[in-house]
Structure formats: structure tokens, C-alpha cells
Specification:
With 208 residues, this protein is mainly alpha-helical. Helices cover 69% and strands 0% of the residues. The longest helix has 16 residues.
Length: 208
């Protein structure tokens, strides 16, 4: 049976959290064997890298939402995936994020945890304004959590420069890296490459 994007993303995150490989290696392994459309492949990549890049923030949200937060487990990995969609992905409808993440839990064998995951995600939706305000406050007071950086590194930057400079570095590090592509004239014209990217919904801009 074909796996859906969130199921593939979840399995990659399970393996990454268990220390079974680097994210890029796990992504390549799973995406090579998966039969996904280009948009779904990009969705998997966005969710995996987004969750990893924002792990500390997502964990802080989970710990606030849950009376008894799960430890390092598959449930926490799925909650990270769910909270990432709700808090940091504007293009995912909330109901779709909840339903698909709960279904992913069941497909991954976490039937007994699906209700718990559903409840916490729905709480995030109800109290989203509070969660987002807390995040804005952390950007000023706890940049290591807000920008998911090691606390020791942020403290070192603050000692070397100041809090403002440390926060600016965190913001810069947290940004998604640009991807550069070089046109190969043997493979076709620039126009044909641009047409292909437009058809696949890939945003791009020319550079010198």
C-alpha cells in the first residue's frame, strides 16, 4: 500500500530521533522508494526539515499543552509534526493537519496514542493565540527555545557580543537556506527548465 506524505515524514522523524541517520540520508532513502508526486515530495521535505529545525520550540509547546508530556518517543515525534503544521505552516488547513496526523499515528501502529495526539492538537488550535504570543515573548527572553538553538551556544554568543546580536544570529541561522541551481545547456534551454519548474510549482528567481 502506498504511504502518504505525513506517514513517510513521520517514519523519517522516528528514525532521526532514534539516531539512525542524518536527515538528508533518511530523506533520500525513503523518498527513493516512495511513489510520490513532486508536490508531495516537497511536502515531506518541508515537514521533516521544519520539525528538525524547530524541535526545541515544538517541544516547549508540547510541554505546555500536555499535563503529562510524553518523553522521547514516537508520540512526541508525531506531536512535533502536528504542531509544526498548526503553528508554522500557513498553507495547511487546521482540520487537515489534525485528521491526517491522527490517521498517521494509527497507520504507524500508535492506535492507543491517537486520541492523545488529537486532543493536544485541538487544544493548540483553541489556544493558538496564546501559544503564538508565548513564542513572541520567547524571542525576546528565551531565544534558545524560540529559535531552537543549543542554550550553551546562545549563552556563548551573548557573552561574546550581546543579547541582541545573539538573537540576530539565531534568526539568521533559523532561516531556510537558499538552493542554487546551475543550468546545463546540454540538457536543454533555460526556457524549458523554467517551464518545467513552473509546471511543478517550484518558485525560483534568476540570478547572475
Amino acid at each position: 500500500m502506498d504511504q502518504k506524505p505525513r506517514q513517510i515524514a513521520a517514519r523519517i522523524l522516528f528514525e532521526w530521533d532514534a539516531g539512525e541517520g542524518y536527515a538528508e540520508i533518511l530523506l533520500k532513502r525513503h523518498l527513493t522508494s516512495a511513489r510520490l508526486s513532486p508536490p508531495d515530495r516537497r511536502l515531506v521535505q518541508e515537514m521533516v526539515y521544519g520539525v528538525i529545525r524547530n524541535a526545541a520550540l515544538l517541544d516547549a509547546w508540547i510541554d505546555i499543552a500536555a499535563r503529562q508530556p510524553p518523553g522521547k518517543s514516537r508520540s512526541r515525534s508525531l506531536l512535533r509534526l502536528g504542531f509544526y503544521q498548526l503553528g508554522l505552516m500557513d498553507r495547511i488547513p487546521e482540520h487537515a493537519a489534525v485528521n491526517e496526523t491522527v490517521q498517521t499515528a494509527r497507520r504507524c501502529g500508535l492506535h492507543t496514542q491517537s486520541g492523545f495526539i488529537n486532543a493536544l492538537m485541538r487544544r493548540f488550535i483553541r489556544e493558538k493565540t496564546t501559544f503564538m504570543e508565548q513564542w513572541e515573548d520567547w524571542k525576546r527572553t528565551l531565544p534558545a527555545i524560540a529559535y531552537s538553538h543549543p542554550a550553551w551556544l546562545v549563552e556563548k554568543w551573548e557573552e561574546q557580543w550581546d543579547t541582541t546580536a545573539a538573537t540576530t544570529l539565531c534568526q539568521w541561522n533559523q532561516g531556510a537556506p537558499s538552493i542554487m541551481a546551475r543550468w546545463n545547456p546540454i540538457q536543454g534551454s533555460v526556457e524549458s527548465l523554467q517551464d518545467q519548474w513552473n509546471q511543478e510549482g517550484i518558485a525560483f528567481k534568476e540570478c547572475l
